[in-house]
Amino acid sequence: MSFDGKVAIVTGAASGIGLATAKRLARDGARVAIWDLNEAGAAAAADDIRQAGGQAIASRVDVSRRDQVDAAVQQAHTQFGAIGILVNNAGITLFRSFMEMDEETWDKVISVNLKSMLVCTQAVLPDMLQAKWGRVINVSSSSAQTGSAQMSCYAASKGGVIAFTKALAQEVASSGITVNNVPPGFVDTPMLRGSPIGSVVDQVAAASPMKRAGRPEDMAAAIAFLASEDAGYITGHTLSVNGGRYSN
Q1: Which of 17, 29, 77, 132 could form a disulfide with 219 if both were Cys (CB 3.0 to 4.6 A apart)?
Q2: Is residue 199 over pLDDT 60?
């Protein structure tokens, strides 16, 4: 796949799935804007891409804040040009009993995981509408497909991502823009390792159909496909990448 001439934004790209995706798109020719709250991590990721011969810039961005998103889009415009690919990957996870959930925490998770879809996508859609070409790929979660104990807030936010994908896909389909989502299933990332189940990742993976955890590169490959010309007639789709954990 070639993304020569394309400009991509990948949110939450300092590590894990976002980092693997940014590297994959850059390897295939895209100029990549790396967004993350982890400013040092984003800068290191961009430096890695440049050292490998790619083009990348880094921005510290809270994806739930419109002012920060707009400023980072302007930076991408100045250095690279109009945005053609948006990967809405940034998110936070949460394990908490439903009856112990407080409104402040609920609102924070919804803001980062779901409100960001509004803020980031609205910021770049004008570029895509003008070009009559665009790719929006949202990273949801298999937890939204299967349900998951002590993850009601996270699963609700990611279920909203899936529904958002379907609705926006229909709205912009005639404009040359596709909108799809990838729900990862049990991917070995720093976020997973740092969660309450981080100590049993290897045991859970061994009990799965493929007997291994997913790799960030597995997700990046699916996202790159959905961003490519080959996927031009696919929109509103949920491409599950979970090693057989869930079939839809």
Answers
A1: 17
A2: no
